[in-house]
Amino acid sequence: MVTALESRHARTTVRHTERDALRQIVRSAAIGRDTVVELTGDPGSGKTALLTALAADARREGLVTLRGLCVADAGEPASFAPFLEALGGPGSPGAPGADGPSPEIARLLHRLARPPRDPDALVPAGGGLTRGCRYYAELRGLLADCAAAAPHGLLLVLDDFHWADPCSVRLLETLIRRPVGGGLVTVVAHRPRQASVGLRLAVRHGVELGTVDEVGLGPLTPAQSAELLGAAPDTPRLRRLHARSGGNPLRLVALAAADGGPDDPAHLDVRRDLETRLLAECAPLTARERLAAHAAAVLGEAFDVESVAAVTRSPHAEVCHALGSLESRDLVRTALRPGTLAFRDTLLRDFLYAEADACWRVEAHRRALVHLTRRGAPPVDLAPHIVRSGALATPEDRTALVAATKDALPAGRACRAAQWTVFALRLQRAAPDGSGPDLVGRDVWLPVVRALAAEGDLTRLRSVTREVLAAFADRPAAERVPAVVPLALVQAAAGLVEEAQALLVPLLSARHTSPEQEAALHVQSQLLWVLAGQLPPRADVEALNRHLAGASPLTAGGALALQGLSTVFAGDPSAAESALDASAQLLDGLEPGARDCADVFACYLLVLACGESAMGWYGPAQAHVERGLAAARLRGDVPLLPALLNVLAYVTYQSGRMAEALETAQEARAVALAAGRNHLVTLADAVTAAAWAWLGDTGPLRPRRTAPDPAHGDLPRTSVVALLHAEAALAAGDGAGALALLFPADTRRMPEPPAILAPRVYELLAAACAATGAEAGEWAHRAESVAATVNVAEQRGHALLARGHDLRARSLPERAARRYEEAYGLLGETAAGMRARDLARAATAEARAHEGPDGGALAELTLRERQVAELAGEGLKTRDIAARLLVSPRTVDVHLTRIYSKLGVHTRAALVRLMARAA
To answer: Of 378, 777, 874, 917, which has the most beta carbons under 10 Å away?
Structure first.
C-alpha cells in the first residue's frame, strides 16, 4: 500500500478559482479517471504555492500524494530526476529509513534506475519495437500498479518541469498518449517560455487528444493582492504595490517587504528567499553570459546588443550569442520597442545589478552614458547613469539632470525627479566656478517638492529640502528668503508644520534688507499653521500688528485674514468682520500673476475664505476660494489643492448646491488621499455624507456613528466634521446617531464648542433630543444665549431653529412654525435655510392636523408621497408598498420620512389615524 507524502513547505495561495478547478480534477481520480494537468505561469506566479495547497487538499480527500521537483543543472541532468524524488525523496514511501517501500514502489524505483543502454535498438521478436519503447511501456505498467494500490487515487505532482531531463519528458509523453487507468492524476507545472520543445509538443498533443487539461496562472487581481498581503483593498499603498508588481505574487511580497525598510525582519526573510531562488537560476551562466547580464542590468529597463557591447567592451557577435543564451533561459525577453530586450522582471535585474562588482558598475555607467549620449538618447535615459556614475560625474552633467527632471514631472515620476534634483544640487555645490544657483534654481526644485508633497512622499520631500537649504547656506538671509519660504509653505501643506516653522526661525532672527520682507516673514510664519489645518495661536496673530510697518498690500491683506480667522473662532465676530472686510478689499485689488504674489496669494485667499465661511458669508467665501484655486492651479501649487477644494465643497454644501458640493468633495478626497492628508479626507467624507443625506440618499457614504478624534487640539475642524455627520444622521432620521456624534456617551460633559459654531451645535442637539424624545429646552436656551452674544445672522437663525425644535417637541406646532419661518428669513436659501423652510411647512401642517383634517396638510404632499401615504394608511408594510409601487423599500422609507415631516406625525400609527380621518 502506498502511503501519502507529507508536504515539505507550508505555503498559502490566493488563487481560489484555479484551486477549485484542480480540486475537481483531483476528485475524478476517485472514480478511476486518469488526467494530466498542465499548470503554467511565469516565475513567481505562485505555481508552487498552489501545488502545495492542492497536495494538502488531495490528502484530505484520501489520495496518495507524490511530489517531485526538477532543478536547474549546468551539467547533464540525471535521468528521471523528478520521478525518483517523488518516489524515493525525503519523506516519500521509498525513502531510506521509512517502513520500506511498497512492492509496487520498489519495482518502479528499480526499473527507473536501470534504463536500457541502447534504447533505440530493436527488441528481438518485438514486432519492430525498440528497447526504449518497451522500457517506457514497462514503466507505464508499473505506475498503473502504483495507482491501483491507492484505493482513492494517486496524485503525482511534478514541479518546475521546464528543467526536466529528456527521459522524464519521454515518460510524461507516454502517460499522456496512453493513460494508465486506475485514477492517476499527474500535475505538471512549468514555465512555458523555458519548456523544451519535446515537452511543449507532448502537452499540445495531449490537449488535442483530450487527456491534458490546461490551467494558466495570470496576474493577480487587486483583491487577490490585498488578500495576499493582508491589506485593505483600496489604499494608495496597495494600488502602488499592485501596479509595480504587475500582479506577480513573488514580486508583490518582495516589494511589500521592502517598504518596511532594509532592517525589517520580514524584508530580510523575503530578500533571502528571493536571492536564493535567483542565485540557483543564474548559477549555470557562463562568464560571458554573466558579464552580458551585468551590463544589461546597468543599462536599465531596455537594452540592445550594441549598447551591451559598448558597456562590456566585447565583440558584437560574442554579446549577441550571450544575450541569445539569456533569452533561451527566459532571463531576458523581447521588449516592446523593436530591436530591444528587457529583463523578465525588475527583481531579477536588481539581483544581477547588485551581484556585479561595485567599482565595475560605476565605470560601466559612465561608459553607458557616453554611448547613449552619442546615440542622442533623451535626458531621462541619461540621468540614471549620471547619478550612478558617482565620483565620475562632472558639473557639466547638471544640464542633462535638469532637463530630465523637467521631463519626468509631467510623466508622474516625482521620485525619479527628486533623485536627479538632489544629485544636480550636489554637483552644483561642487562646481569650481560657483555658478550653481542659476542652473538648478527654484524653477527646477520647487515643482519637485510640490509634486512630492502631493504624493505624500515626505521622505524624499525632506531630502530635497535639505539639499536646497545646503545650496543657499552661505548666502545672506535676504537671498535665502525666496528659497526658504516656498519650502516652508510646501512642508506646512504636507502636515510638517513644526519643520516648516523651524525653516523660518533663522530668517526671523536675521537682519533683512527691507521692512516689507521682515513683515512678510512674520505673517507667513503664522500662515503655516493654517496650511497644516490648525489655528495659529491668537497671541501670535495679534502680535503681527507690531511688524506690519512698511508691509505690502499682499502682506497686510494676509495678516488681516489671519486676524479675522483667529478672532472669529475666539468669539469676537465684530472684530473678525472688520478684519475680514479689510483683507478682502486689499486682496481683491491684487493680481495673482504679480511677482510679489507668487507664493502666498492663494494661501491668503484660503485663509480669507475660511474666515468668511465661519461667519456665514458663503457668497464672498466661494468667490475667494475659487480665485485661490485658479491661482494655485496656474502656478502648479498642488499641495494647496486639498484644503482649497475642501473649503469650496463645504461652502457649496452650506449654500444648498448639493450636486456641486458632491463633485468638489470627491475631487478633494482624491487629492487629499494621494497626499496622505487624512484629516482633509475626513472632511471631504463628511461633506459627501451630509450632501447625500440632504438629497435623501445615505447609500454612497453613510454617516459615521462616532465623533471624530481631535488632531493637534484642532477643535474648529473637528467640530465641523462632527456637525456635518450629525446633520447627515438627522436627515436620515437617526436622532440617536446624531446625539452620539455631538455628545459622546463616554464623556461626562460636552466640551464647549467655539462661540461661532455653538448655536449650530446646540440646534442639532435640540433636534436630536426632540427626535429621540429627550428634553430639548436646555439646548435651545444655550443656543439663544450664545447667538445673542455673537450676534451673527446665521447663528441667530440656528438659535431660532433650536427653539422651534423644542416647541414642536412640546406639541406647540403653531409657535414652532413661526420660529422656523423667522429662521428661514435669516438663513435664506442656504442648506440650513431650506431645512428651516421645510420644517415650517411641516409644523404648519401639524398645527392644521391638530385642528382637524381638512385636506390642507395632504395638499403639501407630492403625488408619489400621497400614494405612499394612502397605502401606509391602509396598513401595508414597507416592503408591500414597495412591491405595489415597483420601487425599493429604501425609497419607500425616504418618502415616509418626508411624509412624517410634512404632516407633523412621528409614527406609522399616527399616519394611519390621520389618513383615516382624511378619508
So the answer is: 777
Partnered with residue 38 across adjacent β-strands are: 188, 214
- Exposed e or buried b per residue across 199-216, where buried means at least 16 C-beta atoms within 10 angstroms of its C-beta: beebbeebeeeebbbebe
* C-alpha grid cell, residue 572: 469676537
DSSP state of 248: -
The pLDDT of 182-192, averaged and rounded, is 90
3-state DSSP assignment of residue 214: strand
Pairing of strands 64-69, 332-334: unpaired
Could you tell me which residues come within 8 angstroms of residue 626 by beta carbon, excluding any fewer than 6 positions away?
Answer: 648
Amino acid identity, position 142? L
- Residues 764 and 739: their CA atoms lie apart, in Å, by 8
Look up the pTM and report it: 0.74
pLDDT surpassing 70 at residue 25: yes
Specify the DSSP element, H or E, that contains 188. Answer: strand 184-190
Considering only CA atoms, which of 680, 653, 656 is closest in space to residue 668? 680
Q: What is the reported pLDDT for 7?
A: 32
Q: What angle do CA 722, 538, 724 make, to 5 degrees?
A: 10
Count Cβ neighbours within 10 Å for each residue of 175-194 and write b for 16 or more, e otherwise: bbeebbebbbbbbbbbbeeb
Helix (H, G, I), strand (E, B) or coil at 341: strand
**R_g over Cα of the chain:** 37
Q: What is the mean pLDDT of residues 202-226?
A: 91
Identify the helix (H) or strand (E) that includes residue 37. strand 35-40
Backbone angles phi, psi at 122, to 5 degrees: -75, 145
Residue in 179, 175, 183 with CA at minimum distance from that of residue 152: 183
Kindly indicate the confidence band of residue 96, based on its pLDDT and cuts at 50, 70 and 90: very low
Residue with cell 503655516: 528
Residues with Cβ within 8 Å of residue 103, at least 6 apart in sequence: none
**Across the chain, which distance is largest between two alpha carbons, in Å?**
117
Lookup: cell for 126: 518485438
Q: Is the pLDDT confidence value at 849 over 70?
A: no
How far, in Å, CA of 711 to CA of 24, rounded? 54
- Residue 554 CA to residue 600 CA, distance in Å, equals 8
Give the pLDDT mean for 213-240. Answer: 87
Burial class (CB in 10 A: 0-12, 13-18, 19+), 913: middle
Strands 332-334 and 154-159: unpaired
- Beta strand pairing status for 341-343 and 332-334? antiparallel
**287-299 and 316-328 helices cross at what angle (nearest 10)?**
90
Spatial separation of the C-alpha atoms in residues 722 and 716, rounded to whole Å: 10
- d(C-alpha 400, C-alpha 380), whole Å: 8
Among 104-118, 137-151, 611-625, the range of highest mean pLDDT: 611-625
**Spatial separation of the C-alpha atoms in residues 743 and 750, rounded to whole Å:** 6
In degrees and rounded to multiples of 5, residue 496 shows phi and psi of -95, 60
* 3-class DSSP string for 726-738: HHHHHHCCCHHHH
**Share in percent of the chain as helix, strand, coil (round to 5):** 65, 5, 30
Residue for grid cell 505673517: 523
pLDDT the model gives residue 698: 54
Question: Is 187 in a helix, a strand, or coil?
Answer: strand
Q: Which residues, in sequence order, are CB contacts of 173 under 8 Å at separation 6+?
A: 198, 202, 205
Burial class (CB in 10 A: 0-12, 13-18, 19+), 909: exposed
Collapse the DSSP code of 427 into the 3-class scheme (helix H, G, I; strand E, B; otherwise coil) and give the result. Answer: helix
Distance from chain centroid for Cα 798: 40
Helices 287-299 and 346-355, interaxial angle, to 10°?
A: 110
**Rounded Cα distance, 77 and 601, in Å:** 73
- At 295, the amino acid letter reads A
- Euclidean distance between CA atoms 355 and 353, whole angstroms: 5
- Among residues 388, 384, 320, the alpha carbon closest in space to that of 356 is found at 388
The residue with cell 418618502 is 895
Average pLDDT for 358-387: 95
